[in-house]
Design goal:
By secondary structure, the protein is of the alpha/beta class. The protein has 2 helices and 6 strands.
Length: 124
Amino acid sequence: MFEIMALVLLSQQPFQPVAEGVASFYTRRESSSITASGEVLRDDYYSCAMRSGQFGDYFLVVADNGRSVVCRLNDRGPYVKGRIIDLSKAAMRELHASKGLMHVKVYHLGKEPPPRARHLPRRN
């Protein structure tokens, strides 16, 4: 998180969220094991699904409780009204140990993962 904040402070551009709203999580049991990008959905990777965006881009998801996680976009969704992002099980656990829905802000980070980003899906 500190590396991302340093990046924001050193850059001249304002760091604005691309989306704000409710996040949910999805697992292999609830959906197909193949994502829209063609990758296998893994519950232990920090990945996400959004209706728009480039597959392979990284996003910072910040919950109202102050916790954050960096995810890689590899699927489309969510298809439930009022939700803006679906997170893998590992990513949602990073934000809160037991909640299934959370209010979040989503920031676009680009094609390269920030330093020390853990458990991100590998590029094919």
